[in-house]
């Protein structure tokens, strides 16, 4: 069996730990198509937060408490940059993490595409799944906000990390998406998939930028594999992070039904053939989409692997 997972960073990475466990149990093969909308250049380094969250988590090197970055991290480079007054000072750049960004930036500068760089970094971390960026092209999420009495677009990282999403926010723009092509392997993986899972990642800023590449969205919506989504909202709460702010900005209710409706029924021009919601949301319905309620708290690898088994069952796969 071949499983494709659309994923963002921390939430998606946790989900992938369960996908990998279930896949090992049934002899399946996993490809993660990872959001690049958060990617940003800081201090001359190309930073790919979601790719790194997935790579470090599956490589067993992430910091489980902070959620992002490396366990046992030190911050000498960050302190030294601050001593120079180098901006942006609001972005956390750990020393171990910096080595990853140096290798990545050096390879990109030498002309390697991001997909090849990701594969090279994964040689070290052995995530146990094939990790593909959604695109090798520049695609960045920018946010239209009111700031200093002006309406302007700022990078997603600035909105999220610097301003903690607490600015009057009007919309999200996926800069470069119109011209972006799927990275090598993405369309092939979707075409060969037995199932496509949408991780319980942030639908607005993790999954939407992946789907903003038209060929990726079309391949999934028009492809043979059933598409099963897992709700990132439990009982009206985004569990962790700021998905509620993102959903409010795009006018979607912060509920399992709201997010399911955002993805929409495949039979109705949307994506979903099935929608997994938490047991506490058993009354949630999405028009045209079979919905099933199971525990969706990713409290352990085993609990998450069971969620994945439930998603595969909803797709009609054992
Ligand atoms: P990011 O890119 O690091 O922000 O991470 P993702 O977009 O991949 O995932 C963030 C989302 O994961 C949050 O908005 C939550 O809604 C969701 N999430 C986090 N923990 C859980 C959990 O235990 N269960 C479910 N169903 N969703 C979760
Ligand atoms: Ca992210």
Model description:
38% of the residues lie in helices and 19% in strands. The chain is of the alpha/beta class and 318 residues long. It has 2 domains: 2-136 and 178-314, no CATH class; 140-171, no CATH class. The strands form 3 sheets. Strands 5-2-1-9-10-11-12 form a 7-stranded parallel β-sheet, sandwiched between helices. Helix 4 (95-109) crosses helix 5 (114-125) and helix 7 (186-192) runs parallel beside helix 9. The longest helix has 17 residues, at 10-26. The mean pLDDT is 97. Bound molecules: guanosine-5'-diphosphate and calcium ion. Calcium ion binds next to helix 2.
Question: Main attributes?
Answer:
alpha/beta; 2 domains; 3-stranded antiparallel sheet; 12 helices; globular; binds guanosine-5'-diphosphate; binds calcium ion
